[in-house]
Amino acid sequence: MNDINSFLSRLNSTINFSTILPEIILIVGLITIVITDLVNKGKNAIFLYKIFLISTLVSMGILFYQLISVIAFEDLYTNNIFNNLFRFFILICSFISVLLSVDYVLCSKISLAEFPLFKISAGLGGMILSCATNLITIYVSLEFLALSSCFLSGYTKRDIRSNEASMKFLLMSGASSSSLLYGFSLLYGFSDGQVQLDNIIDKISFSQYLPIICISAAFILAGTAFKLSLFPFHQWTPDVYEGSPTRVVAFFSVTSKVAALSLFTRLFRLIFPYLSNEWHIVVELLAISSMILGNLIAVTQRSFKRMLAYSSISQIGYVMIGILAADLENGYASMLTYTFIYIFMNLGTFARITPFSLRTGTNNIRDYAGLYMKDPVLTFSLVLCLLSLGGIPPLSGFFGKHYLFWHGWKAGLYISVTVALVTSVISIYYYLKIIKLMLTKTTNLVDTLKTYEKQKSLVSSVISTKLKSSVEMAMILCALASTLSGLFMDPIIKITRNTFF
Amino acid sequence: MNLSELIHEFILALIEPGILVGSIGTISFINTTNSSFSLGLVFTCISLLYFALNADFIAAAQLLVYVGAINVLIVFAIMITDQSVSSDSEKRGIGYFTALGACSILFLTIVCIFHKINDFYSSSIHQSEYLKLNLFEQNDVQNIGYQLLNKFLVPFELASLLLLVALVGAINPARDEDEGKDIAENKKKSFVSSTSPRDKSSFF
Questions:
Q1: What is the C-alpha to C-alpha distance for residues A306 and B60, in angstroms, rounded to an integer?
Q2: Which of A414, B43, B141, B163 has a 20 to 30 Å separation from A92 between CA atoms?
Q3: What letters, b where the CB count within 10 A reaches 16 and e where it falls short, cover A45-60?
Q4: How confident is the model at residue A501 (pLDDT cuts 50, 70, 90)?
Q5: Is A23 within 8 Å of A1 (Cβ atoms)?
Q6: Of the given ranges (A6-15, A141-150, B103-112, B142-151), which has the lowest mean pLDDT?
Q7: Does residue A440 sit in helix, strand or coil?
């Protein structure tokens, strides 16, 4: 008994539990989902989603409270504004993706309790990744996120595209995390056995071991650039996005990118500050190539999901400019604001594709022709989100891009900003192509739209109205956020300003 | 040399041929089951080597993980798949000689590096510093347990959650479910004839 008491008191002194309380709530939600499904024997799956929703909301509330009163705590976690903002972003992603996937319950023929389980675990992995300052925690949480995303993408196991997508994702993520681990092992060895990021910089003598640190930086860059799908490591993105179920793509197109962004920024800012000239050049090159490649190939795509995959590659290219342009007075404000807006834009677009493809069973862009006659709400909100992605004023995408490019220009990244502007114009082309297709009245409607039914025919009407409203709620939320966030740009920038570390 | 060093050399002289024989057996047995068993011999001898080098935790971990899990899995997989005895061709093409050359260069590099390190650490200054580290009186397992529950508590618990999710995720695609009852219910409620895009609704 004495041992347990002393252990608990020592535990309390080393880890302040209130700092990881949001994650603990998510873990409690995860365990509750598993046990509830076990007890209910597979019935009443909507209850599981309610648990997920509640735990996400409570977690967000506690995180909000913590954001206001910053508790500074070192060792495993550092609770500065940067980390907390990323945790908040990931919680928003999880919340909106729950709203998207509620109707999965009744429309699919496969078991459903594992779906919220994997989503919670991916969100948990992302949240811990955003605050980890310790090589081991970084690696374990990265693997957690990758593994849960892989299971999610292979969820519809009877469909061969899903199998292919999850196989590709698993193999590529395994290869990239082994490269990351090799970079970590070099850092661990040459800093005399230190695992904490701060201690590594203290102990490693940069002048003596410069070639080794460059090699380690190259490996870490390769490992994290895979997650971000930057240029040479982007090959997995279109295939995985096209193959996975649409709700899943919505979820991990934002969650894993946001978590990987926080990891990338923290690693490169903390460990390699003396190398900043070198890795700035390399990252700039990667960003320019991702922007060019993503936008040019997206022009030629015929499937909506593949086009969105390439467009997300180019969006991450834009965000890289924000990372490179960080300076003392503005911190990472441009990157954080653009990430925030990107979450809503991307989730909004996927929130509209999901019901459309559910009702017509196709993903081809040509089949969107004349949609405004059948479903004006969907058309209008899709138009808003696509325009926001393209960066047309007065939507918030424009404000995000404007701030990003202004910040980049001020920091001297002239080539990147010029390329970004040119490729933004190219991206407007393919977004407008879809909008034009949807809004023009075609004399002979496409076959698929002829059978376009507004209500889901697989369920009874009562449940369908209740569930339809959750996806509609997500759509409207995202549309509003991607439109009106531009008006709230100044407060957002002020919050994200002092994030330089 | 004194008695303890003699015993140490003797034990090492027993273990190292075991590793050598086992690895040669792994690559040259025609029957894959024999080859996987000799792989088990290699892993066991490596773990005995760790014991002789006074790293008790690593030795135990090697036995549990490599021999007890990975090798058992390999043997299991080999025995389940009904393999015919593979015949290896006697022709030695260009690939054989390239691999031979690359491996021998690698081997010579490693031997040279080890000799240099040996010379470096044999000098008296380094030996006294090495002895000061007092490695032989630490209790590895206790130290590791202490660190796991104090400094590395979050990754430790997260790894246990990862195991849970990995188990669920591994069983999920492999499991058999009854979808007969679901299909019957859905067919009753649908009033649109199910064309092929409609069947893909679960995918979207």
A1: 48
A2: B163
A3: beebbebbbebbebbb
A4: low
A5: no
A6: A6-15
A7: coil
Average pLDDT for residues B155-182, to the nearest whole number? Answer: 81
Question: Exposure pattern of B74-98 as b/e (b: 16+ CB <10 Å)?
Answer: bbeebeeeeeeeeeeeeeeeeeeee
- Is the separation of the CB atoms in A255 and A90 below 8 Å? yes
Q: Which residue of B has its CA nearest to A137?
A: B155
For the cut 70, the answer to whether the pLDDT of residue B181 exceeds it is: no
A54 Cβ contact list (under 8 Å, min separation 6): A29
* Token pair listed for A231: 């240029």
pTM: 0.83
As separate numbers, helices (DSSP H) first and strands (DSSP E) second, chain A gives 22, 0
Question: Confidence class of residue A447 from pLDDT cuts 50, 70 and 90?
Answer: low
A167-207 tens-digit pLDDT: 999 999 999 999 999 999 988 888 877 788 878 877 777 77
User: DSSP string spanning A12-34?
Assistant: HHH--GGGGHHHHHHHHHHHHHH
Residues 6 or more apart from A367 whose CB is under 8 A from it? Answer: A360, A446, A448, A449
Contact (Cβ atoms closer than 8 angstroms) between residue B155 and residue A140:
yes
Asked if A224 contacts A267 with a C-beta cutoff of 8 angstroms, the reply is yes
d(Cα A23, Cα B153) in Å, to the nearest integer? 14
Find the length of chain B.
Answer: 204
Amino acid at A113: A
- Nearest residue of B to residue A148, measured between CA atoms: B165
Q: What is the rounded CA–CA span in Å between residue A243 and residue A245?
A: 7
What ipTM does the predicted assembly reach?
0.84
Residue from A501, A238, A37, A458 nearest B200 by CA: A458
In the prediction, which pLDDT does B186 show? 47
Note whether B89 and B59 are within 8 A (CB). Answer: no
Inter-chain CB proximity A458 and B173 less than 8 Å: no
Structure tokens at A100: 């998207």
Distance CA A243, CA A170 (A): 13
What residues in B contact A108, CB-CB < 8 Å? 201-202
Whole-number pLDDT of residue B108: 95
How many degrees, rounded to 5, is the angle at CA A501 between CA A323 and CA A179? 60
pLDDT-based confidence at residue B203 (cuts at 50, 70, 90):
low
Q: What is the largest CA-CA distance in chain A?
A: 82
d(CA A412, CA A245): 41
Q: Give the integer Cα–Cα distance in Å for A265 and A263.
A: 6
Q: What is the mean pLDDT of residues A106-125?
A: 79
How distant is the Cα of B195 from the closest Cα of chain A, in angstroms? 10
Write out the DSSP string of A240-295: HHHHS-HHHHHHHHHHHHHHHHHHHHHHHHHT-STTHHHHHHHHHHHHHHHHHHHH
Of the partner residues A144, A354, A457, the one whose CB lies closest to the CB of residue B158: A144
Chain B residues within 8 A of A162 when measuring between CB atoms:
203
What tokens were used for B89?
Answer: 């061709």
Burial class for B134, CB neighbours closer than 10 Å (0-12, 13-18, 19+): exposed
* Total residue length of chain A: 501
Contact B154 A20 (CB under 8 A): yes
**CA angle (B93, B95, B96) in 5-degree steps:** 70
- If one compares B120 and A395, the residue with the highest pLDDT of the two is A395
